[in-house]
What does this fold into?
Amino acid sequence: MKYIIILADGASDEPIARYNNKTPLMLASTPNIDALCAKSRCGLFKTVPDDMPPGSEIANMAVMGYDVKAVYEGRGVLEAASIGVEIQPGDLALRCNLICIEDEKIKNHSAGHISTEEAAKLIAAINEELSDEVVKFYPGVSYRHLMVVRGGNKYIHCTPPHDVPGTPFRNVMVQPSGDNAAQTSDLLNSLILKSQEVLKNHPVNLARTVAGKDPANSIWMWSPGYKPAMKTFKELYGKTGAIISAVDLLYGIGDYAGLKAIHVEGSTGLYDTNYEGKAKAAVEALKEVDFVYLHIEASDEAGHEGDVELKTKTIEYLDQRVVKYIVEETSKMDEPVAIAILPDHPTPCEKRTHTHDPVPFLIFHPGATPDEVKEYNELAVEKGYYGTVSGNAFIKALFQIG
It folds into this structure.
């Protein structure tokens, strides 16, 4: 048996009053997902414990069956792995966003989804002005970058910028949360303020402003951690695997998990990503490995923007341009292929941030008796075979372990 997880990042939501209390999953036309659902077994999966932040890093590690409380060390170290930055003992790694601040408030977490090319020039300027023997910045993709602090203290409270759009930025700056952490928090806050001086008149931002785009006028650090101790996926579950995404975070998880990284040209992480290319790459990878993790980011970004219509459209794109192809092509393969579809966490459009609510999932095993669920959404799967699961129960159900 081969296995594929189609991860629709942030696709689940909450009922929206102005849409007759429907969610984007309910609003979307998804004939291919629903047809697969009718042949599958379904349930709800609580991916993030209530006492942990509902970020994609924790949620995706949970989907892969990791004990997140034992291995989670923040986004920074995961993204470092994906771009080839070796984190040394004692190094503190943090996600470093380029964000837009307007009237002293966080306008958005992504500087208007700045391009990777523009962002690289801004991070280079930040490095030139602010890096030293203690602090170093590394460019990533779009607004997502990396900062490493030699000897930094991870016991600090950092606010994810996508959680607080519209909030005065000074109210959510870094705070120490443990002994001897004040020096690290003071350093980070100082760098945030200094970055604003470096970036405000940079040619990239001046050009963006003239073009009517949001300037990337501040850095914002969050999700601190040290290098994690993770077993590989093969050590845990005896499977070889590959991962396909457009996001450094996911490739970082894959690196620690021992999954082969497959990069598809035209993958953007947004609604305009190369859906067809990703689907084809996933099917090809299944010919070489036991397990493929296909991550599609678009619905999450639409949720952060609060755009219900766009989020609904991204789900329809997933149905028509990914799921349809994968179902058709895997049915022709000599070895049977089990297919799972789920989000990692909800990103409700009304809240524009992640929540802890359980997410709907389906698992199709060729030849297995399906349950009574006929359509895939947050409400329908409540009646599914699996009920509500947590921990590694989802991955064990997919692999039919125990």
